[in-house]
Structures are given as C-alpha cells and as structure tokens.
Amino acid sequence: MFYLALAVSVAWLVYFAYLFALDLQIKDLRRRLDARSADSRNNTND
Amino acid sequence: MRYFWLSFKAIFIKDIVTELRAKQVLPTMIVLGMLIVWVMRIVSEASSLSTQMMGPAVLWIAFLFSGLQAQERAFATEEREDCISGLLLAPVDPGTIYIAKFLVNVIMLCVFEIVVVPVVFITFRVGVGDKWIEFITVLLLGNVAISSIGTLFSAMVQLSRSRGALLSILVLVILLPIMLPATFALLLIFGVIPEEFAGSGALAFVGDLKTALGYMIAFDAIFTVACWLLFGFVVQE
Amino acid sequence: MRRLLMFITLALLLTSTWLAFTVGEVVPSEDEKGVTVEKNILYVHVPSAICSTLCFLVLLLTSIAYLVNSKPIFDYIGAASAEAALVFTTVLNLTGCIFSRVFWGPWWTPTPRLLTSAILWFLAVAYLILRAGIQNQRHRARLCAVFGIIAFIDVPMVFISARMMRDMHPANVGFDTAWQGVSFGLSVLSILSLAALFIWLRTDILRSRAQLENEMYS
To answer: What angle do CA C154, C134, A24 make, to 5 degrees?
Structure first.
C-alpha cells in the first residue's frame, strides 16, 4: 500500500511537472501574442 | 541493372580511393579501438574483474565507439566540399548512394577488426577454438548493423549543428537492443561460457547461440532494408 | 472543448486513484517462495506502459504521414507525442524501479521489463535531442520523421531482445474481484486521456509558436 502511494505520488508529480512546463509555455506564448497585438495596435494608430 | 552497377561502382571506388589517399579515418579508428581496449584492460585489472568475461564486452565497446568514426566519415567530407549537391544532381538513385557508402563502411569495419581483434585476444586472454565461422559471422553481422544505421544517420546529422555527438547518441540508442545477443554470442564462441549452460535457465541470458544469431540476422535484415528505403527522404531537398 | 477534456481527465484520474486505493486494492498474497506480492503498483505501471507504446505508435503514424504529405501539423503532433512518450516512459521507469525494489531488492536489475523501459526512455530522449539539434524547420520535420520511423522499428526489437534476459519473477496478473478490473480499466482510461491532453496542448503550443515565428520573420 505504501509503495502504491509512493508510485502514485511519483507519477502525479511527473505529470504535473509536465503540465506546469506546458503552462509556462502557454503563458509565454500569450505574452508574445499580446505584445504583438499591442504593437500592431500602436502601429495602426500612428 | 547495368546503370545501378555503374553508379554504385563509381561511388564505392571514389570513397575507397579517397580513404586510401587521405589515410585519415582508418588509422584514427584503429588507434582509438586499441586505446579503448587498453583502457578497459587496465580498468578491469585494477578492479580485479574476470578478464575472460570482459573480452567480448570490450570487443563490442571498442567496435561501437570506433565504428562511429567510420560512420561519421560517410558523409562528413561530402558536406564540407558540398559534394552532396553534386551527388544528388547526378542522376543517381539515392538508394545506390546508400548501398555504396554502406558497403564502404562495412569494409572499413572489417579492416578495423582484422587489426583490433588480435589485440583483444592477446590482452584479454580469449581465443576462438574451432568456431571460426561463427565468430566471423557474428562480427560481420555487427558490422552490418552499425553500418546500416550509421550511414543513414550520418546523412541525417549533416544538417544539424553538433554532428559527431548527435550521431553517437542516435546510433548508440538504436543499437542498444542488439548488444545483448551480440555479447552473449561472443561469450559462447570464446568458450568463456560452456556450451551446456546455454539454453538452460542457469544463466542470466536465456537462449543459445542459434537464438542470438537469429536475432542479429533479423535485426540486420530489417534495419538495412528500412534504412535503405528511408535514405531517399533524408537526402531530398 | 479542451476544457472538457481537462475536466474529464481530472475526474478520471481522481476516480481511478481513489478506486485503486480502496475498492480495487489487491490483497498482498503469499507467493510460492513465501514472498508477499504487492501488485497494487501495477495500477500505475501498466497504464504508463500502454500509453508510452501508444505514443510511439502515434509518432510512427505522424512520421509516415509527414513523409508522404509534408504538412507541418503532422510534425507538430509527432513532436508532442514524443514528449508525451518521454513523460510516460519516465513514469514507467520510476515505477518500475519502485516495483523492482519491492519485489527483488535492488532498485534496478537487467530484467526484461526494466530493460525495455530504459531503452524506450532513451529512444524518446534521442528523438528530442535530434529535434533540438536542427534549426531549419523543414529539415527538422523531415529528419525527425525518419528517426521516428526507425525508432518505432526498434521498439519490437527491444522487446524481443530484452526477452532474452532471464525474468526474475514472472508476475501473474489476474483479477480477483470485478472491482479490480473496473479500477484497472479506469486507470488505463485516465492515463490515455491524460496523454491525449498532453499531445493536444503541446501540438497547439508548437503550432502557435511556428505561426508567430513565421509572421515575425516574413
């Protein structure tokens, strides 16, 4: 039982670490998209 | 068919003549192989490992790491002088290029083995009793395995930044499964493990020489055909 | 649509874990050698194995599709699937080590199961290293597709070769009660949906990033 708990926690840790890494990448993408749209908005308002 | 022979002979002879003139890769391979054998001998002596058991393992380790030198050679010079464009512009089937370079690699590995295998015999006190045919078969099968994969990956790796390291990683990973039966086959051939033990449950390795050889033949056949077919995709623009 | 998948995944994961701990618990039984067999760990280990092999299969299919077709979406799905394969083989290796520690003592030993897990992990890593080493997008996609096909051809060779090593302990998997079957099925489903989620998210990230960079440089 203890080893099952250990295995489950290890597995969940790995999965959540990967999801966290994916989330970081999504945040970065969103930041770049926002910067790009802000940039183009500023450009078109000239 | 005649066309295949013409183009094949052209590339084949070109590579061999280049190597004979430059004398670059083959001496490096041989010296590297011998050095690896010596390092392993010293290490195994320092840690009091059984030298006879280490013999086959060391042979394959030296073979792998020196064999990578040969694989690198296959396309390294082409990229440097941009011969690869010349090769592709000529109306040569990519499969022919692959077979020619593959055979050059096999032959270079054979020459390497002629020099380094006696060194292993001497330093690790192993010998082939009467199983010469099986021994040469196993060595040839190993040559074909590393050459088939190495030629394809060498072409692949030319397009990347770090060529040598990447090639080593890719080839070693794919060759991992064949190392088990290969080492076991050599252990049996050298007589380090008595014949009766093979095939019984007494060893860590289950199966006997026939199984190991059968696996290596299957591995070689499958990968040679697959790499030959995929080579066209690698060199197309 | 993606939020739905996320919700389903989370629900499945929680349910299967809860079930595995309570109802589906395999009572440690005595083996012939008098060693207590702790089979519960298979609830995490086996689904990861199934999933990682499936990810390699997806990699093969998208690689073939890319070589035939040259649409970049296949390249993105392949790369996402290789990353998912890496995640699942990592879990496979770690749980396999725990399994080996419980059963046989050492953390790792050259038995078929642990050998195949290790080599599969290296295959996924090699694909990702190849991917990181090539800058040009079209070259990268093509070469990774070729490597994906070779890697998948290697997988059955790994299985057969590792089978040549002596198996120290033949694990007998059978279900005692129906609830165990249910909880096992649920855990497989949950890991499958987790894999689908990983691949979907990562594919979207890759595609958006490629779009961004194309627009930046064009």
So the answer is: 95
